[in-house]
Design goal:
This protein is of the alpha+beta class. The protein is built from four helices and six strands; from the N terminus they run ββββααββαα. β1 and β2 form a beta hairpin.
């Protein structure tokens, strides 16, 4: 049995085709010499910098504010989360809009937005 030879898009010679990429066909040598496609980062450089800065500020904030500031029913007492009262958008790094809370209180605040606003634990995101 004879193998059909086809034109390789890499070296432009009649060879046994190893792999295809769309309509392009490559022999084994050309396939392994292709540059891998550039991966698009899931996070932009600017957002990565913001997230790095947030991590530093968050750690320092929780050292200073180690007790839960919400103190709702079922509160565990120790702050482990930072609740962004005015959302994360432009206030992501604005410490004045942060609230140190335990996981239980944070979950309640997120699940009960109307009541949380009434208690002063959340703010409207739109001014």
């Amino acid at each position: 049995m004879q193998v059909k030879l086809k034109n390789c898009n890499g070296c432009n010679k009649l060879k046994h085709i190893w792999k295809s990429h769309g309509k392009e066909k490559y022999c084994k040598e050309c396939w392994y010499n292709l540059e891998p496609p550039k991966k698009i980062s899931p996070v932009s450089k600017k957002m990565r910098e913001t997230m790095d800065e947030y991590s530093k500020r968050r750690a320092a904030f929780l050292v200073v504010h180690s007790k839960c500031q919400a103190k709702l029913v079922g509160c565990t007492g120790n702050a482990t989360d930072v609740h962004h009262k005015a959302g994360r958008g432009e206030n992501h790094l604005n410490i004045s809009t942060w609230l140190a809370v335990c996981r239980t209180c944070h979950k309640w605040i997120e699940e009960h937005p109307t009541e949380a606003k009434e208690l002063g634990l959340s703010e409207n995101r739109l001014n």
